[in-house]
Design goal:
With 507 residues, the chain is an alpha/beta fold. It has 17 helices and 15 strands. Helix content is 36%, strand content 15%. The N terminus is likely disordered.
Length: 507
């Protein structure tokens, strides 16, 4: 049996994270996991990314931040180490791993026959795939990409849906490549593309927007001018909003091959049967291994339905030159030989290892029955809400029971009202630190990782989130008391930091 390697035994692959005294560079697999992504995966002088997460396990940390960014579990990290060692030994290549990941995704989700899988550095980059395919299949026609639930899907979604750069860092840069500004067109993708944004909420009263009328209006305009709509629906936003499958005359346009549907399921909080239904309806489905499934940041995939793949295989292909900054030949299905020929065979080792880590969690969790998971999730939700109710002067649940695996909450000010985004960002960071010395309380010691602030109203109104992940879901089976104790510790620390916010801010 092959012994799993440790970082000390792996080749000394380094990523410098700054020159602060006492801070060492990330080495080995930890360094590689940060590569082949965008600015969200890069680490700072403290060795953490913009979400205060490290690309390696943190012993004794409490993790309920799967709706934002993950720290890999011990098991997932070991899987990535083993895969990297196999690459170093020459047993497998990045291409082999990517092919295995695509095959595993199809088998675990039991997708309909003919479905193919594209792998992407994140859920944001995944937006480029439906756009590129739509441009190939409707050559020369204007594309109108209609993004629903805007501001509660990925921060780069709208730019990516328009064929634009959403980050100054690209996964596969060329030597001497100039930094790309966010919003700058990606060569070959942005031309003749328009985006329509439909907000997630009315920012006046925080109510969820029904996108149906906005979608219908945009689709009708497309039909009148002869352009091609791509309509998004969302299977779980940052706060758990579900934007339903389009219920308009749009379906006739899809049947006539004059429109496309994209289901944003990047949070991966869905039942397998829903995925099958969407694919059978001819929709692209975007998923990730780096939200609910606790894979390190980030890993995305696009499931392309057989109805689209059949057309794509019979159509001459010209790829956007700019796509090569995000995608190599290893990330596309083997059947698409024209794509593989057009793309470089650059190895995105970081993405390969991130997907290996994610699959370690996915396989264990998808082995559970959906009904069993639903029951566990509902019980977890009620347990967390009961903990929040213990601190009515500091914490308030926002839209309780709107999502079984994400609890959104607001922090109450002593003088009335709620803390806004800048202050919630401070609390978000403080939660990841041992604050026991500063607050003279052991209750402030646990390092707790939760979901980052999300704006839900004008004037800085926002929520923080406590999110169940795949590992904490499975813990509810064998160690429910331990899981609930962890949730209670998170809520208690949140309440303490909220109560003492002004004092802590001055420290």
């Amino acid at each position: 049996a092959k012994i799993l390697p440790t970082p000390a035994l792996l080749p000394l692959h380094r990523t410098m994270v700054g020159s602060v005294a006492g801070v060492l560079p990330l080495v080995g697999v930890a360094a590689i996991l940060t590569e082949g992504g965008d600015d969200r995966t890069t680490t700072n002088a403290k060795g953490v990314n913009k979400y205060h997460c490290r690309p390696q396990p943190i012993p004794d940390a409490i993790f309920r931040g799967s709706c934002t960014c993950n720290i890999p579990t011990e098991s997932a990290y070991r899987a990535a180490e083993a895969a990297y060692q196999s690459m170093q030994d020459g047993d497998v290549s990045v291409g082999d791993i990517m092919e295995g990941v695509r095959s595993k995704i199809k088998s675990m989700y039991q997708v309909p026959a003919g479905t193919e899988v594209f792998l992407c550095p994140s859920g944001s980059d995944a937006e480029y795939i439906p756009l590129q395919i739509a441009k190939i299949l409707t050559k020369g026609r204007k594309i109108v990409n209609i993004v629903t639930c805007d501001s509660e899907v990925g921060s780069g979604t709208l730019d990516a849906a328009g064929g634009k750069y959403f980050s100054p860092v690209v996964p596969l840069p060329e030597d001497g490549m100039e930094t790309k500004a966010m919003g700058q067109p990606v060569q070959g993708l942005a031309e003749n593309v328009e985006t329509v944004s439909i907000a997630a909420r009315d920012m006046g009263d925080s109510s969820v927007v029904n996108a149906k009328d906005g979608v219908q209006e945009a689709v009708d305009k497309c039909a009148k001018e002869g352009s091609v709509p791509i309509v998004h629906c969302v299977l779980g936003s940052k706060t758990g909003i579900v934007e339903p499958f389009p219920e308009t005359n749009f379906g006739q346009m899809v049947s006539a091959r004059d429109a496309f549907i994209v289901v944003d399921a990047c949070q991966a909080r869905f039942r397998r049967e829903w995925l099958t239904d969407y694919l059978n309806k001819g929709a692209f489905v975007l998923i990730t291994g780096s939200k609910f499934y606790r894979g390190p940041p980030f890993s995305g995939a696009v499931l392309v339905p057989s109805l689209v793949m059949e057309r794509l295989l019979m159509t001459d292909t010209t790829l956007a030159p700019g796509l090569s900054y995000f995608l190599s030949s290893h990330e596309v299905p083997s059947a698409l030989t024209s794509w593989k020929t057009a793309l470089k065979d650059t190895s995105n080792t970081g993405l390969a290892l991130r997907w290996v880590a994610a699959l370690d969690e996915m396989e264990l969790t998808l082995a559970m029955g959906d009904d069993d998971k639903d029951q566990l999730q509902e019980a977890w939700l009620e347990s967390v809400l009961s903990e929040l109710a213990k601190y009515p002067e500091q914490l308030e649940a926002f839209e309780p029971r709107s999502c079984a695996t994400i609890v959104s909450l607001r922090l109450k000010r002593k003088d009335g009202g709620f803390y806004g985004t800048p202050d919630c960002k401070k609390v978000f960071e403080w939660m990841t630190l041992d604050m026991s010395d500063k607050l003279s309380s052991p209750d402030a010691a646990p390092r707790c990782y939760i979901g980052q602030p999300v704006s839900v109203a004008k004037g800085g109104g926002c929520v923080l989130r406590i999110a169940l992940g795949s590992d904490s879901l499975r813990q509810l089976v064998g160690d429910v008391e331990g899981a609930r104790a962890a949730d209670a510790a998170i809520v208690k620390k949140l309440a303490m930091l909220t109560r003492m916010f002004e004092e802590v801010s001055k420290l």
